[in-house]
Amino acid sequence: MTQEITNENNIPIPKAVRAFGIIKPRFDPQQQGFIPPQLEIRGTAFLLKDFNIIVTCAHVVQHLINLPVELAGMLVVGKEANYQPVSIDNIDFVHDLAVLRFRKNAQMPQEMFDNMIKTEFDNGLLLSDNDPVVSNNVMYAGYPLGNVLLNAKHDPSYSEGIVSMCNRENEFGRKEFQISGSIAGGFSGAPVTLKNEPKKVIGVVSNSPSKEASDVGIFMAISYIHIKALADLSNS
Predict the structure, then answer these.
(1) 22 CB burial (10 A radius; 0-12, 13-18, 19+)
(2) What is the pLDDT of residues 164-216, one digit of tens each?
(3) Which of 6, 12, 192, 220 is 20 to 30 Å from 167 by CA-CA measure?
(4) DSSP letters of 50-118?
């Protein structure tokens, strides 16, 4: 069941989740001029503590790679109307993962940027070192349906599910596990944690194997082992 989080104090996952989107000026043909830049939410990302990186799915950012800012817009992550520019640091198409990093704008003093980074990643999640098992209760949070469900604070939507199958491997050797739970477009890139270990990421919401699976509430999560491999590579 998807629900809006109103009290994050005892649930670490909403504190680590960020909306991923673009801010891009738009031209109004009727006024023959540009209107103020608008935020367009494209998916979900989350802060990974210890590595100081932002993780999302490769397919969320794929079409933005190598595009100039004039075409792609400025890539940002954030919530509560506080959005920070980011850049794509590393991408793994085989395992559908991407690493983002905060990017300092020219106007921000270095000390302020460093303090922002520390504050942000203090809210980050840790990586698990254990596989889930069937019947484990899990939770995840993200930004389904993009701008449609945003409230004034841009809080993520929270949902819970159950691990229904473990150690699946697709044709590319991607290790994933199956979750029975509600899913919608925009949840891609959301972290999944066990309810009894809420600070440790066991996987990343990727997608449903088919429309029929999505309709009945089944989706796949990419294993934490692939997150760790990409995080190690990005910080090497």
Answers:
(1) middle
(2) 998 777 777 889 999 999 888 889 999 999 999 999 999 999 875 555 545 66
(3) 12
(4) TTTEEEE-HHHHGGGTT--HHHH-EEEEEETTEEEEEEEEEEETTTTEEEEEE---TTS-HHHHHHHHH
pLDDT (0 to 100) of residue 1: 43
Record the pTM: 0.86
Our measurement of the distance from residue 84's CA atom to the centroid of its chain's CA atoms, rounded to an integer in Å, reads 14
Question: What is the rounded CA–CA span in Å between residue 86 and residue 4?
Answer: 26
* Ordered structural domains, the chain, with CATH: 9-125 (2.40.10.10), 127-234 (2.40.10.10)
Alpha carbon distance 55, 52 (integer Å): 10
Residue-wise pLDDT for 96-109, tens only, equals: 999 999 999 888 89
Q: Which of 129, 117, 101 is nearest to 227 (CA)?
A: 129
41 phi, psi to nearest 5 deg: -80, 130
Question: Which H or E run contains 24?
Answer: strand 17-28
Kindly state the tokens that stand for 61: 């950012």
Q: For position 206, what pLDDT does the model report?
A: 87
Judge whether residue 111 has pLDDT over 60. yes
In the three-class reduction of DSSP (H, G, I as helix; E, B as strand; rest coil), residue 181 is classed as strand
Res 155: pLDDT: 86
Using only C-alpha atoms, what is the Rg of the chain?
Answer: 17
The CA distances from residue 51 to 47, 101, 125, 136, 234, in Å, are 9, 11, 10, 26, 9
Instruction: Quote the pLDDT of residue 29.
Output: 67
CA atoms within 13 A on the CB side of 129: 0
Q: Which helix (H) or strand (E) holds 137?
A: strand 137-142
